[in-house]
Amino acid sequence: MKELSLNSCRLDRRYDIRRSLGRGSYAEVFLARDLLASPQSPHSEVVIKALNVYLQDDLDADLERTLIENFQNEALALDRVRHPNVISRLGHGTARDLEGRVFHFLVLEYLSGGDLQAFIRNGKLSFETAFRFVEQVCAGLSHAHSKAVIHRDVKPQNILLTGDLKTVKIADFGVARVSTADAPITRVGTNIYAPPEHSPLSAGRTGALGNIKLTPSADVYSLAKTVYTLLCGEAPRAYANGQIDGLPDRLHNEPWSAEVLRVIKKATRDRPIDRHQTIDEFWADMLRVRALATDAEPETVARSAELPAQPHVTRGYTPIAPSRPSFEVMADRPSTLAANRSFTRPLFVQDAAGPVMHIGGGERAPAFSELNAGKVRSRPRRLAVFALLIAVFAGVLYGTASYMRGRGLLPEIAGLSAERTGIANTDIHLRSEPSTENEPIGLVTKNSRVRIVKSQNNWYQVDVVEQGRQKASPLVARRGWLNGQYLTLGGN
After folding, report:
1. Please, are residues 278 and 216 in contact by the beta-carbon 8 Å criterion?
2. Is 280 a catalytic residue?
3. pLDDT tens digits along 202-220
4. Is pTM beyond 0.70 here?
5. Of 99, 159, 179, 394, which one has the greatest count of Cβ atoms within 10 A?
6. Residue 245: φ, ψ to 5°
7. Is the pLDDT of residue 362 over 60?
8. pLDDT at position 489, please?
9. Quick one: CA dihedral 237, 243, 249, 251, positive or negative?
10. Nearest CA to 86 among 22, 180, 149?
11. Catalytic residue among 97, 153, 172, 280
12. What is d(CA 243, CA 261) in angstroms, rounded to the nearest whole number?
């Protein structure tokens, strides 16, 4: 087992690694500071989730390919279900740590309130607070299911809180599945919360569950057991892998206890067909529970039951996802990889003041199993590498000069100044000021051509010369500010 060496590093020339937040069986998680973000930005601190295949003691080519594919699928699932109550992906990349080991990484928003499991340990939730969190989780899961994505690991540990403790977001889509009828069901999840159709405890069963198709009712089951934890202040350990048929004695006198037991008892039945079939159906039942707790009028209950769960939007949320990730996945055995494919090396992380080598967005990193091959280098090859380093150094000097000149730190050379243009690499909103803290005034679609008017702290004021595609939008401004990370600079 080898952990990545990333302490006190700068990743991708913008993320300063602060500390480790933990690790799982295949990934490590770090807290980082985004140097391109304003200190007032809700995303000034981010989470770096780094895929580390070296955590596996029995790594081979097939396992490596599976881990990388799963990691990329997690990113794609997050983008597909982008929602105010689902953790947002902010970026991605590939790098080498300080010991030269290659890893892929995702940049996720940082939710400083921690997870609901830890929050519950610090004190019992009020009914209203618990119910507010349940509504937000229902809103996120309902949206995910509308995009044909089933989470498969809903539990308090995978529901994270914002710093103000008012908003929750669903995290960890690492085992999420697109709802396809013919896909085999794998055993995943936590024993206490996972439904029988994919619980690890059911791996030895035969017959009854073998031909069950994965449906949204799998998440309904896990959500119902999560609701039990939120309302009761303890996990339903006595009902691991089984139907909940009772509540703790101390709750028997609550006006809502009988009704909530009816709802979660139905939601945790063994056969998926016997449960609520959608999150919206489960939510409608839960609204009746809240009505009993608040003494609502019957007419109000009837009207409320028709309303879907409402999301809670936090500052900094945007429905626009960053550029699509495409990580390197082995397509052949190591011996044929070296002979048939050439790779560009990924960027290096930077320690205190070390150099950085950057990989372009369209370039590919080498497969992990190729990294240790061919250590012997001939003299001509060394000379070629030396020449390449000189070229890179010259490019860095030129890029630095262009960067400083673009920000007014160096004067333009008379007679050589030219109109600066760029191409939008994704859909992005125009802002009236160089900050995400003001309302959008226009929309620039992907591949739009823009003319740069001025720049400020990696923000550009631009005129839209030509839209990449026509898109109906109430935002009509054609001049405004956008962040430079969404713009590929070009010539005339």
Report:
1. yes
2. no
3. 555 534 444 567 899 999 9
4. no
5. 159
6. -130, 20
7. no
8. 83
9. positive
10. 149
11. 153
12. 11
Tell which phi-psi region holds residue 399, choosing left (phi > 0), alpha (psi between -120 and 50) or beta: alpha
User: What does DSSP say about strands 168-170 and 10-11: parallel, antiparallel, or unpaired?
Assistant: unpaired
CA distances from 443 to 124, 290, 418, 468, 488 (A): 45, 41, 26, 11, 17
Which of the two residues, 190 and 100, has the higher pLDDT score?
100
Label residue 307 exposed, middle or buried (CB < 10 Å: 0-12, 13-18, 19+).
exposed
Pairing of strands 89-96, 347-348: parallel
Encoded amino acid at 57, one letter:
D
What are the backbone angles phi and psi of residue 304, rounded to the nearest 5°?
-65, -35
Amino acid letter, residue 266:
K
Cα–Cα nearest to 264, from 235, 225, 293, 229: 225
Q: How far apart are CA 329 and CA 138, in angstroms?
A: 34
pLDDT band at 276 (very low <50, low <70, confident <90, very high): very high
